[in-house]
Amino acid sequence: MTVTEDRSGAEVGRDRRRKEDSRLITGRTMWTENISLPGMLHLAILRSPMAHARITHIDVGPARELPGVVEAIAGRDIADIQGSLPCAWPVTEEMILPDYPPLAVDEVRHAGEPVAVVAARDRVSAIDALEAIEVDYEPLPAVLDMEAALADGADLVHSGHGTNKCFSWILDSAEAGTGDDVGRAEADAEVVIKRRYLQQRLIPAFMEPRSVVVDPTGEQITMWSATQIPHILRLMLAMATGVAEHKIRVIAPDVGGGFGGKLQVTPEEFIAFAAARRFGRPVKYVESRSESMLSAHHGRDQIQDITLCAKRDGTVTGLSVKLLANMGAYLGIVTPGVPLLGAFMYNAIYKFPAYRFDCTGVFTNTTKTDAYRGAGRPEATFAIERTMDELAAELGMDPLEVRRRNWIGHDEFPFTTVAGLTYDSGNYEAATDKAMELFGYDALRREQDERRQSNDPVQLGIGVSTYTEMCGLAPSRVLGQLRYGAGGWETASVRMLPTGKVEVVTGTSPHGQGHETAWSQIVADELGVPFDDVEVLHGDTRTSHKGLDTYGSRSLAVGGIALVNACQKVVDKAKPIAAHLLECDPADLEFVNGQYQVKGSPGAAKTLGDCALAVFTSHDLPDGVEPNLDADATFDPGNFSYPHGTHLCATEVDTETGRVSIRSYVAVDDVGRVVNPMIVEGQVHGGIAQGIGQALFEEAVYDADGNLLTGTFVDYLLPGSPDLPDFVTARTETPATDHPLGAKGVGEAGTIASTPAVVNAVVDALRPLGVSDVRMPCTPERVWQAIRDARNGAHEGGERS
Amino acid sequence: MTHISMTVDGVRYDDDVEPRTLLVHHLRDRLGKVGTVVGCDTSNCGSCTVLMAGNSVKSCTVLAVQADGSDVTTVEGLAGRDGSLHPVQRSFHETHALQCGYCTPGMIMAAVDLLAENPDPSDDEIREGLEGNLCRCTGYQNIVKAVREAGAAMRTSGQQVPPAKPAERPETAAQEVTT
Questions:
Q1: Which of A98, A346, A738, B95 is most buried, by the most CB atoms less than 10 A from its CB?
Q2: Distance of CA A10 to CAs A392, A501, A527, A743, Å?
Q3: pLDDT score for A603
Q4: Residue B99 pLDDT > 50, yes or no?
Q5: Which are the contacts of B10, defined by CB distance < 8 A and separation ≥ 6?
Q6: Where are the CATH 3.10.20.30 domain residues in chain B?
Q7: Whole-prediction pTM value?
């Protein structure tokens, strides 16, 4: 039954339309919130209205009396089984890791912290009953400002630990032997640029609010959760609650976005898990958007003090970073590790001979921070790209010329940086040249000059961002050196079905990235089967028992290699069977276009499907051959993935109103070889949009008492369709040398690149007015204020961030 | 409890509802129309957009009792009974106008209404027209393209105002589209 499929061209590299779409565009998607089980109770969570307080009295009794309510519990009621929420990244031995009860027991440390739970027959009754719960709070001082938190005699977030300093962590090139001493570089420098930048607090704001369903009635306790990390979640549930790992099943059904915001093991998941066990009935919890803003982890929130040393010809000689990173009140799954991911990126694409990164993590009475798209690298990239522009301005050079003078040449790869990473490949010249051409760089500079000379009230600014990033998390050995609690491998299995169809199991857990499509393309090429004959299974620990899930632009960069390797094992396993069917020596066979054929004589051939059927029947297999073509592979990367690119942004800034509008945006990204260009472009679009969100629109704000002022989409401004321009995107292609497909990660690149491109453009527009910085987000009010301050002769012109 | 009757995606439902029940919760929790989703609690995000009497509404801002007697079309009722996609659904797929897909039901319904009012919108008109629908994944560029291309396809096929009235349910219309 040899079937010859008409396979026109390789799948990898094609704009395949996504398999996922058909359910998403017709409303047949299986969100966690859609799951309903017999006897299921609906949970509502009472949350602290105070940023810091002692719970002196709590009585859930009155809630139990209300119609529809079945149970109500406070922290003390489940203290024995709820466990403490885990942090998987204790970055130093001395790091303070506070106890983190999912349901607060004695003390609340941020507004929105869960204090009690009601379980009712329907969600509305559960929410109604929250008002009947009696809680007395004794207010404690709220610690909100990071620098004040570190001062002597500061009020404490965790009084038992005696300090608000969570950890300090230093990377020094002289100490590490990767470069010179930064102190000496500063002493010898002809130019020293010192700047302070504020990374405002952001909210990931995935569109699907988090929800969780737990069914404790089976042999395994099953949890459905809107999570990026079903495998890690299962492990953490087991380790933190004492329930045996094999008695827990976690399913991530369709998940509506994450951006790092669902890279978390949440209080709500643990509360639902404990409640279901206690009640012996299925439970469901669905957060409101306001609860999500208040309680799901936030991102960024750092103070960056940058010192850049250079010669007058523009050559950089040293870089020093002093960083304060706001942890919030507790440590989430990777909270302390996020700023460390930036530690290796401040030096970026430049050949700094000396480097020092000195980071302090600080507790405050705010929602915890954790990974948000880019996690550490956007902060680093922003700071260095802003500072390179400041250097250019100081020296009167073109910002691209300063960069050219300092970046790693395409002929210098592999290149070991001052932070100790080895960049495998890149071509910054090619990406920049292409971006300048698409942008019309010289013409825009001319127009800028004209507008400056004519004192046009609307000034033109040009922003540059030449970025790289480290992604494809991550080499396990490196993670071990950084004291991360897990490895960074990924796994894949290929199951050959008797009819020649293929099921692929991946340990990655997509939530919008299109893995079902891209993985099918890869498998189609590797196994020579039609795209539509591949089914990709993921996100259920029963079918996909092993994996490290999706974040850090790792799925293709790491999981893709596991997938290729698993496919190659299948091809190898089927070879003796094909030889047996063809009555030839396996050594004489080659696998071409999905067929085994005798080298040099393509006439007789057997497909993988033929072999799968032969294995299924097993009537006639060679002696000693196992009747099984399935294979799995686990891959641990030897290095990170280093996508790079050049983003150029032109803004028009109305100097009378402070309004910023993006006139054009060009992104040339080099993400190596591309499996599906359409999906890659989509990732770039969305990434740029989120970076622009940070530059111009988004900021999570607390008042002086620690209340979140931006707790809804009314107050927290996500970019809408009229707020964004069309992006011009293009690619250069420098294949990753460590990846069999040559692919690099792409999920975070746009976000990492775009924020500094936009802010550099805003500042560039205003620099003749004496403005040298505008604090993010660059709202009309802030821009207007910066102009006004500069005109009034405020120091350095404008609001320093 | 208030007795209400409405037609949703071509099926008539009679129910007694609490007066405070929102249309979106009635659709999801009582009628099982879970294709329509809830993304916020301040009517900013538009994820819950449906058509009521042919006009797009955010079903979190409409009480179920206000929809009494109405014809409601959700994303589940947009394709033909034979599964043929509405031109807007098809163009969302073709132009990669969705990633996680959570905003997509609302975005598609808003786009259907937009094209009914303005069959040949400019890109700026599309962006303004979809202002009430938030997407966190796509950066909107491919959504704008999808609406533009759906509009072109519908104009080419002579298809006007698809689901404005029950009689013009799109299953027939969608089949006429040539692509």
A1: A346
A2: 46, 18, 11, 16
A3: 84
A4: yes
A5: B77, B166, B169
A6: 2-76
A7: 0.95
CA B108 from chain centre, in angstroms, equals 5
Dig out the tokens for A125 from the structure. Answer: 């009754």
State the Cα–Cα distance between residues B32 and B49, nearest whole angstrom: 16
Count of A-B CB contacts under 8 Å? 166
Predicted local confidence at residue A196, as pLDDT: 98
Facing A720 at nearest CB: one of B33, B34, B131? B131
CATH 1.10.150.120 assigned to domain B87-176? The reply is yes
Q: Which two tokens stand for residue A244?
A: 């045996």
Q: What are the boundaries of each domain within chain A?
A: 424-468+640-801, 489-635
Instruction: With both helix axes pointing from N to C terminus, report the angle between A428-439 and A399-406 in degrees, rounded to the nearest 10.
Output: 170
Asked if CATH classification 2.50.20.20 holds for the domain at B2-76, the reply, yes or no, is no
Work out the percent of chain B whose per-residue pLDDT is above 90. 86
Q: Do the chains contact at B99 and A512, CB–CB below 8 Å?
A: yes
Residues of B in contact with A685 (CB under 8 A): 138-139, 141-142
Q: Enumerate residue ranges in chain A where pLDDT < 70.
A: 1-9, 794-801
- Kindly report, as residue ranges, where domains of CATH 1.10.150.120 are found in chain B: 87-176
Structure-token pair, residue A84: 């403490």
Give the model's confidence band at B172: pLDDT under 50 very low, under 70 low, under 90 confident, else very high.
Answer: very low
- The DSSP string of A471-533 is BS---HHHHHHTT-SS---EEEEEEE-TTS-EEEEES---SSS-HHHHHHHHHHHHHT--GGG
Closest partner CB to B79 (pick from A26, A123, A209)? A26
Are A424-468+640-801 and A489-635 in the same CATH fold? yes
Reference B36, options B21, B24, B20, B26; nearest CA is B24
- The dihedral formed by the CA atoms of B66, B69, B72 and B76, expressed in degrees to the nearest 10: 120
Q: What is the phi/psi pair of residue A355, to 5°?
A: -155, 140
Q: Is the pLDDT of residue B173 over 80?
A: no
- CATH of region A489-635, choose from 3.30.300.130, 3.50.50.60, 3.10.100.10, 3.30.365.10: 3.30.365.10
Among residues A366, A370, A368, A363, the alpha carbon closest in space to that of A157 is found at A363
Which of B99, B107, B148 would best serve as a mutation to test chain A binding (most A beta carbons within 10 A)? B99
Distance between CA atoms of residues B115 and B150, nearest Å: 8
3-state secondary structure of A731: strand
Overall CATH class of domain A424-468+640-801 = alpha beta
Calculate ∠ Cα A628-A633-A635, nearest 5°: 175
- Which tens digit of pLDDT belongs to each residue from B43-86? 999 999 999 999 999 999 999 999 999 999 999 999 998 999 99
What CA–CA distances, in Å, run from A105 to A76, A329, A609? 6, 15, 59
Return the half-sphere exposure (C-beta side, CA atoms, 13 A cut-off) of residue A565. Answer: 19
